[in-house]
Write a structure and sequence with these properties.
The protein is of the alpha+beta class and 237 residues long. 27% of the residues lie in helices and 28% in strands. It has a five-stranded antiparallel beta sheet. Strands 1, 2, 4 and 5 form a four-stranded antiparallel beta sheet that branches. A hairpin with a 2-residue loop joins strand 14 and strand 15. The chain is globular. The mean pLDDT is 98. Bound molecules: 2-amino-4-trifluoromethylsulfanyl-butyric acid and cobalt (II) ion. Cobalt (II) ion binds next to loops.
Amino acid sequence: MRIAGRIVAEILEGLRSLVCPGVTTFELEQFASAAALKRNAKCAFRDYHKYPSSLCCSPNNQVVHGIPNKNPLIAGDILSLDFGVVYDGFYGDAAITVPVGTVSGAAQKLITATEASLNAAIEMAVPGNRLGDVSSAVQRFVESRGYSVVRDFVGHGIGRSLHEDPQIPNYGSPGKGVKLKPGMVLAIEPMINEKSHEVEVLDDNWTVITCDGGLSAHFEHTVAITENGPEILTRIC
Ligand code: MF3
Ligand code: CO
């Protein structure tokens, strides 16, 4: 899982450096699939429940599961990139939200808060804590800043499958839920909206958007619970 996680991290960093005004998400998709092939990894999302791409690209009011297309990105957009691979039977899954050129202060604040909420959740991913400690850390962090937590999509256990038990909501109560033990691996993925938490799915059956048109950001890491604390498998050290 460390190898799968590192591959995902490297490819997401490559994608981050490619994002700029004029680039299309289709070009990002091509980069990601070629980069995975080069590393002998299989893209985890392609054909998963018939998802048509290897990468999810969700700009602005898109929350998750946006399908790459040939529309150029525009300065001021924010773009969520979600990518996963399977390597030697094990999965890695991570997401980042990046600014396209210069973005508004409000957009940058949402991005920063969403990433910080993921870090707050990861700090709680230690043996003896419960899942609710992880979930509530995200909720507390973002709601105190006036943002809202998407309810309809959640994080997940990960390992020999992309999605394993338990589900990991980004809201909940401290002290509740499954007790965390060394060896568990969690994909923690806050999806945070600028305004209301309500989302809907477009007619393509994939793209999730905010109902009110507000911005949404998404960060995700694959995190192993160890005796020595959380080990972020999708971060390049
Ligand atoms: N990180 C997302 C998830 O865990 C990405 C899945 S996209 C899909 O659900 F196409 F594979 F569904
Ligand atoms: Co995931």
